[in-house]
Amino acid sequence: MRLIVEQPAARWYKTEMELKDGDFIRIYVRLGGCGSVHPGLSLGVTKDTPRSPALSETIDGITYYIEEDNLWYLDNQSLRISFDEQYEEIMMAVE
């Protein structure tokens, strides 16, 4: 189980969210959306301070993380965050 943030996605987040080196981005489970793993749930993203991070990856000075209490969503799989240049949007894939 891993959190993988691809470089183009990290650049997009840094620009769109006006992030600075040392910032933290929490990936969390939320109601609604088009999640592919659990119907009626999807993943959200917010700037936050870690409490009990279970998975993390630091790219370009920004740490992306998932808290322990949200690991169940991945069902022992990895999360890959990428950027689709054609549609100019973030893609999150549990694989």
Plain-language structure description:
It is a single chain. The protein is mainly beta. It has one domain (3-94): Hypothetical Protein Aq_1857, Chain: A, CATH 2.60.300.12. The chain is 11% helix and 45% strand. It has one helix and seven strands; from the N terminus they run βαββββββ. The strands form two sheets. Strands 3-2-5-4 form a four-stranded mixed sheet. Strands 1-6-7 form a three-stranded mixed sheet. The longest helix has 10 residues, at 7-16. The chain is globular and about 30 Å long. 18% of the residues are buried. The model has no long low-confidence stretch (mean pLDDT 92).
Distance linking N and C termini? 9 Å
**Given this structure, which CATH class is correct?**
Mainly Beta
**Structural class, from secondary structure content?**
mainly beta
* Full CATH superfamily name: HesB-like domain
Key descriptive features of the protein:
three-stranded mixed beta sheet; four-stranded mixed beta sheet; 95 residues; mainly beta; 7 strands
In brief:
Helices cover 11% and strands 45% of the residues. It has 95 residues and is mostly beta strands.
Reconstruct the topology from this structure.
Elements: E1 3-5, H1 7-16, E2 24-31, E3 41-47, E4 53-59, E5 62-67, E6 79-84, E7 89-94
Parallel strand pairs: 1-6, 2-5
Antiparallel strand pairs: 2-3, 4-5, 6-7
